[in-house]
């Protein structure tokens, strides 16, 4: 039964509010019937100066309109609809302390009126709704009824079967646990979907496609808007009005969000290059003054956020002194010029390090132009960067710099300094080749590597060819290392998804057990001449590690132990580099024999094995390369 309760003593809220006509009590049944379509479940309303509204299990979709009144109280009464015996009336005081304390989630809607604070099913309305602008903040997790309503809407619109309701519920709850709405911020649409795919992989869930995921988001966060942000030709779709919760664990894994720059400051060493400081200051000032992000601010914000994925604590090693030997200086070059070159080149390399550490790759071209070809505009027509204060302490004319570079000891010294610099840059940009990094950062590093040779050749266009060839040879090796390591990182992320899939791992193990390893060993023994016991041990360890469904980091430890075990007998001997090369050849030959057997058997997991093989071969080369560099003191 439904009971209509009339409570007296409520004053009108405003002249413009709609007056509700009150029928007699005996006419309550038809009136209740009409209300039933609006509030199908238990709802209690109290009108007073400040009123608390107890929310039952309402299953309805809420919307708001900034141009119309949300509430329409009668002139002298408030009404309650309850199920089973009556309604309890509770009047809240005007004290703001009546707001219950809950964890803030921060859904903000821009409406004209006072704050409506929600906590655990209770709504508190302060004063009128018609005067000043306030924010609507949702301070608790959505109720189960909200999730059920969203699922029902998706089932009707998408034809989703009811047995997937629990799966949808987990997806929706994950969204509510990690995201919140907020005005003035945005998130790339691809980032949200990547977070969702990672969640499904970690919990062994079947993900929905990107289009269905977009409908999931909109079913939870009403009124979400889409914007296309970024520079021309490189723009991406963003959800505007949503952000990660501060306490969400996804903050550590987040890919390319822009709002993080508002909270984070870059952690870096003392700045030695003024333009980098100026750019950071401009980006910070603009970000604080205007909540709407421009493309330039997006780049700065993205760079600041990406700094958490690089090693900004790296210590730049000292440079060796040039060994001039018995070389006679000529063409007006003195020892003071050599010392000046040492100081200026060290500062130039430190400035390069600072620019890269701030991920401002576009400054490198201008930096090289200012050192090798001063007072010359860069290729894009922009002005040359002004030197730092320290560079005014000494300078070298361009003709004297060219004369110094013609000396072979000076050129050899520069090459060794470049090796130290570029090795430091590699360790800064890619401190761990297996660690997940944003795709935008990876692509920025690859674009940077692609441009290096052209920038340097353009800056040194007036230098002797053999000097340019020496410098370009070192920077080409640096660019190739960046390309290799970013490719290895991309392979690692693809393989990580395979290694987290239980069904794929079981299929791989089943297919691997069908491989005739005795035949593989028989064919490979003549070529590789490996110990049969070592090969059998590697086979058993590989199968055991696969059976244990080890993570990518555990596989990396296993590969590192294999390298250590194979090369430990050659450590400290001149034959170490040769033994390392032979091991790589034998490893590659054995793995190709296994892949061939899987191919001939039409193994269902051939694609997974091919991906794993590519990663392990590349990572094995990476490990051996570092071992040889440590043993010999130079890059192979």
TrEMBL record:
<dbReference type="InterPro" id="IPR039779">
    <property type="entry name" value="RFX-like"/>
</dbReference>
<dbReference type="InterPro" id="IPR036388">
    <property type="entry name" value="WH-like_DNA-bd_sf"/>
</dbReference>
<dbReference type="Pfam" id="PF04589">
    <property type="entry name" value="RFX1_trans_act"/>
</dbReference>
<keyword id="KW-0970">Cilium biogenesis/degradation</keyword>
<keyword id="KW-0804">Transcription</keyword>
<feature type="domain" description="RFX-type winged-helix">
    <location>
        <begin position="171"/>
        <end position="246"/>
    </location>
</feature>
<dbReference type="InterPro" id="IPR003150">
    <property type="entry name" value="DNA-bd_RFX"/>
</dbReference>
<dbReference type="InterPro" id="IPR007668">
    <property type="entry name" value="RFX1_trans_act"/>
</dbReference>
<dbReference type="GO" id="GO:0005737">
    <property type="term" value="C:cytoplasm"/>
</dbReference>
<keyword id="KW-0238">DNA-binding</keyword>
<dbReference type="Pfam" id="PF02257">
    <property type="entry name" value="RFX_DNA_binding"/>
</dbReference>
<dbReference type="InterPro" id="IPR057321">
    <property type="entry name" value="RFX1-4/6/8-like_BCD"/>
</dbReference>
<keyword id="KW-0539">Nucleus</keyword>
<dbReference type="GO" id="GO:0030030">
    <property type="term" value="P:cell projection organization"/>
</dbReference>
<dbReference type="GO" id="GO:0000978">
    <property type="term" value="F:RNA polymerase II cis-regulatory region sequence-specific DNA binding"/>
</dbReference>
<dbReference type="InterPro" id="IPR036390">
    <property type="entry name" value="WH_DNA-bd_sf"/>
</dbReference>
<protein>
    <recommendedName>
        <fullName>DNA-binding protein RFX2</fullName>
    </recommendedName>
</protein>
<keyword id="KW-0805">Transcription regulation</keyword>
<dbReference type="GO" id="GO:0005634">
    <property type="term" value="C:nucleus"/>
</dbReference>
<dbReference type="Pfam" id="PF25340">
    <property type="entry name" value="BCD_RFX"/>
</dbReference>
<keyword id="KW-0963">Cytoplasm</keyword>
<dbReference type="GO" id="GO:0000981">
    <property type="term" value="F:DNA-binding transcription factor activity, RNA polymerase II-specific"/>
</dbReference>
């Amino acid at each position: 039964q439904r009971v209509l309760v009339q409570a007296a003593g409520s004053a009108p809220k405003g002249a413009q509010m709609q007056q509700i006509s009150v029928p007699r009590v005996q006419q309550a049944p038809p009136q209740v019937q009409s209300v039933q379509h609006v509030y199908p479940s238990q709802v209690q309303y109290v009108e007073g100066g400040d009123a608390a509204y107890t929310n039952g299990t309402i299953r309805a979709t809420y919307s708001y309109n900034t141009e119309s009144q949300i509430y329409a109280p009668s002139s002298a009464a408030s009404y309650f609809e309850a199920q089973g015996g009556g309604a309890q009336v509770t009047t809240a005081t005007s004290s703001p302390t009546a707001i219950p304390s809950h964890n803030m989630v921060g859904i903000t809607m821009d409406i004209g009126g006072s704050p409506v604070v929600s906590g655990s099913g209770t709504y508190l309305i302060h004063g009128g709704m018609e005067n000043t602008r306030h924010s609507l903040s949702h301070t608790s997790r959505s109720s189960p009824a909200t999730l059920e309503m969203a699922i029902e809407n998706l089932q009707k619109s998408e034809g989703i079967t009811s047995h997937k309701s629990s799966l949808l519920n987990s997806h929706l709850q994950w969204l509510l646990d990690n995201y919140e709405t907020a005005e003035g911020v945005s998130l790339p649409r691809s980032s949200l979907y990547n977070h969702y795919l990672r969640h499904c992989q970690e919990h062994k869930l079947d993900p929905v496609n990107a289009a269905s995921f977009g409908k999931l988001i909109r079913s939870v966060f009403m009124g979400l808007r889409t914007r296309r942000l970024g520079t021309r030709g490189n723009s991406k779709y963003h959800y505007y009005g949503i952000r990660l919760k501060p306490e969400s664990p996804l903050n550590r894994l987040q890919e390319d969000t822009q709002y993080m720059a508002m909270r984070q400051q870059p952690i870096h060493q003392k700045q030695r290059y003024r333009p980098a400081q100026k750019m950071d200051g401009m980006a910070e000032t603009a970000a604080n003054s205007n909540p709407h992000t421009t493309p330039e601010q997006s780049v700065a914000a993205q760079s600041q956020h990406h700094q958490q994925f690089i090693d900004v604590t790296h210590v730049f090693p000292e440079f060796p002194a040039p060994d001039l030997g018995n070389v006679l200086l000529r063409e007006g070059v003195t020892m003071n010029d050599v010392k000046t070159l040492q100081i200026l080149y060290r500062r130039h390399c430190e400035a390069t390090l600072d620019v890269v550490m701030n991920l401002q790759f576009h400054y490198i071209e201008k930096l090289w132009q200012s050192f090798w070809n001063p007072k010359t505009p860069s290729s894009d027509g922009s002005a040359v960067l002004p030197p730092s204060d320290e560079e005014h302490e000494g300078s070298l004319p361009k003709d004297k710099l060219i004369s110094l570079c013609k000396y072979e000891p000076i050129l050899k010294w520069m090459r060794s300094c470049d090796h130290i610099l570029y090795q430091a840059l590699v360790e800064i940009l890619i401190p761990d080749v297996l660690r997940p990094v944003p795709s935008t950062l990876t692509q920025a590093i690859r674009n940077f590597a692609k441009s290096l040779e052209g920038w340097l050749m353009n800056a040194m266009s007036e230098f002797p060819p053999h000097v340019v060839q020496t410098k370009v040879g070192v920077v080409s090796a640096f660019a190739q290392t960046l390309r290799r390591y970013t490719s290895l990182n991309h392979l690692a992320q693809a393989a990580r998804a395979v290694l987290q899939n239980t069904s794929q791992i079981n299929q791989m193990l089943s297919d691997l057990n069908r491989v005739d390893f005795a035949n593989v060993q028989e064919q490979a023994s003549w070529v590789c001449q490996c110990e049969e016991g070592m090969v059998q041990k590697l086979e058993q360890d590989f199968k055991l590690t696969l059976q244990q469904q080890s993570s990518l980091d555990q596989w990396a430890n296993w590969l590192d132990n294999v390298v250590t075990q194979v090369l430990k007998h050659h450590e400290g001997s001149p034959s170490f580099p040769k033994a390392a090369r032979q091991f790589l050849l034998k490893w590659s030959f054995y793995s190709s024999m296994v892949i061939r057997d899987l191919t001939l058997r039409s193994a269902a997991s051939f694609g997974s094995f091919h991906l794993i093989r590519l990663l392990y071969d590349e990572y094995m080369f990476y490990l051996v390369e570092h071992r040889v560099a440590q043993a010999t003191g130079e890059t192979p």
